[in-house]
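Could someone model adenosine-5'-triphosphate with this protein?
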Amino acid sequence: MTDALLQVNDLVKTFGSGDAETRVLRGLSLRMDKGELSALLGPSGSGKSTLLTILGTLMQPTSGGHVMLGVDLTTANDRALTEFRNRHIGFVFQFHNLLPDFTALENVIFPTAVREGRETAAARARGRDLLGRMGLADRVDFPSTNLSGGQKQRVAVARALMNSPELVLADEPTGNLDRASAIQVMELIGQINRDEGTTFLISTHDEKIAATCRRQIVVGDGVVTG
Ligand SMILES: Nc1ncnc2c1ncn2[C@@H]1O[C@H](COP(=O)(O)OP(=O)(O)OP(=O)(O)O)[C@@H](O)[C@H]1O
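Reply:
Sure, complex below.
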C-alpha cells in the first residue's frame, strides 16, 4: 500500500455571510498518496483555487481540515504553518510572478535567499541544476523579461522545486501558454515527478493537459465527484 501524503476531511469553505454567503466547498474529502501526479478539474467557480489555497495553508477552512505528512494543519498556529509551508509545499501560479529585473537563476533562488538571509553556493548550484532540468541551462543568466512565456513558467516551476517540497500545488500553470509550451511544461513536471517523487496537484480547464496526469480529480458542487 502507498503512503498517504495528505488526507482532506469534510472540508467546508464559506465566503461572506447572510444573503451574500457563498458556500464553495461543501464537505470535500480527498486522499493523495506520495508521488501522485494529479490534475484538478471542475467548472469555473467550482472551488479549485479555494481548495489549492487551503491545501497550501494560505487560508483556513470554515470547518473540516487536512493532515499532511502526519501534521494536522487545521490546528497549527500561524508560525508553524509558515514553517511547514516553506519546508514542504511549492507553488506555481498561472501568472509566473517573476521579478523582471532579476535573472532566471536569481528568481529561482530569491525566496530561499530571503528566508536564509543569504545566498549560498549550495542554493546557486541547486538553482542551476533545476534550470538545467527545465531545459534552460543556456538561459540561467538571462533577465527574466527576455524569456518567452513558456520559459518563464519553467523558471517558476524550478523556483517551486527549490526546497525539494513533497507537494507542489499548481493553479492553472499552463493557462497562459500555447499548446506546445503547455505540453513541454507538463512533460518536465512529469519528469520531476518520476525523478524526485514530488507529488503534484495541478488545476486546469484543459482536458488534454489533465490527461497527461496519472490521476484526474474532478470537483463539482463543492465535493469531489470523480
Ligand atoms: N475571497 C473571496 N470572497 C468571496 N468569494 C470568493 C472568494 N474567493 C473565491 N470566492 C468565490 O468562490 C467560488 C470559487 O472560486 P475559485 O476561485 O475557488 O473557483 P475555481 O474553480 O478556481 O474557478 P476558475 O476555474 O474560474 O479559476 C467563486 O464563486 C468565487 O467567486
